[in-house]
Fold this protein.
Amino acid sequence: HVGADERGGRPVSRAGMLAAVSSFNDGSGPVMRGPSSSHCAAALRIGRIARDLLGGTPDTVRVEFDRAGSLPTTHESQGSDMGLCGGLLGWEASADGLPESPAALAAAGCRLEFATVDVGDPHPATYRLTLAGHGRRHALRAISTGGGMIEVVDIDGFALALAGDAHETLVWHTDGAVAERIRARLAAAADVDTVRLHRSGAAAGGGWLVQASAARFVTDDGLGTVPGDGTLVRRLAPVLPVPTRRSSRVPFSTAAALLAADAGRGLPLSDHAIDYECQRGTLPAGRVLEMMDEIVRILRRSIAQGIAGTDHADRVLGHQSGEFARLLDAGRLLDGGALDRTVLYVTALMEVKSALGVIVAMPTAGACAALPGVVIAVAERMGKSDAEIARALLAAGLVGVFIATAWTFAAEVGGCQAEGGAAAAMAAAALVTLAGGPTPRALAAASMALQSMIGLVCDPVANRVEAPCLGKNVMAAANALACANMALAGFDEVIPLDEVIETARRVGNQMPRELRCTALGGLSITPTSLAIQARLEAARAGCGKAGCGCG
């Protein structure tokens, strides 16, 4: 299949081809606790698959990161450890006790160790897990592809493609003839979407693996007569909200194809977004709207929580949005119109994320605030309903589909232009839709917004996803608002959105590793940043209470 380093690391389908993107899988989720979706949420999903692979909570887990990747310097401070532990316990990414998951995993009797190795993994966010327990031992290699999305690329020496978008039934056997009979039986089953037969190399001990992907697990009866000797069956539950089915189709995957389908009809982008999700997820339109309505409710709760105040020991910035709200209400700030409330909502959401509260990765946790902050703020000023907000966010999600299909949301791959730039483009399209603009103008706004953020690096201060992330979220939101108005006024975007996305991808590949979410360059290595990092790490080390939220 197409490698992660060639296409930005997007998950592949069960047939080994690039999987069609879903807004709810890639751009409008997951619903999670901070600080980073590509670290915490992705690691949690990898951990849940690893738990299913072993058949329960492991006794021991060894996690290895390639020295040349991004994880050796970021896995602890940006939530990978917390996410992995939660996943190995079988928890959700929004679980209340997630910050205490390392302590909970240890209390469950699991010994977890991390190591840095020299293995030359092509993707910078690669996880190598070796697990033991329940009389079994398994090895798994997976990558975090951005925004909480993952791809499992190897299990026990078998190269495969597993994105967590289906019920996976895995059958190991030492006899190739028996494995082929199982494959043929499952291939003929009407309720099995995809079946693949994998063979491992001699270095991995040889053997065969049958992978059956479906809307539900294949039962033992469905597998037929399987000799007991040399046979092992494991069932891996899906970790994504929208499954991939054999019947899944998409009407378009690029902005150019969408414009051709729109054919000058003047439809809002949200109509096309609903149609896309209905076909991609084989969902009724009502269900698509319900899913986004629930996301709007979560966002409103998170904004209110942020303004009311959040508290967390291990963070750079404290509660600031409350004072902004007080001064704004008192008329003591400069009059920025809708931008004032946008800044308030963006900062509130970022504070909730940094306090490990529940947020929605839109499209990532590090860039979770720009899109919902500006859309909800502008919608309130315009007197729009939550249902109209949901439709605008669906329009944003479709722009996210185009970005994720051609590129990535991962700062480890493309710098902050892949996160903040994507958020600005998505938000600009949403705002045009909110104002009643047609699809071509929404795509023009998205193009202008992304153009102005090409080259943006990722350089987190103190190795935390707070500064300059907060300012970049505010900048992305303001950029989106300006570009939306420019597009509504008929400004020429000059470069089509698809070409802008391709340009951002190319620029990301030209960025040095130090400027792609490794905390090894930019503001990350200023004396002040290093001093803050040292202070926070000393406080965490002195806490002595594993999983208290400091670590």
About this structure: Residues 302 and 349 are 6 Å apart (CA to CA).
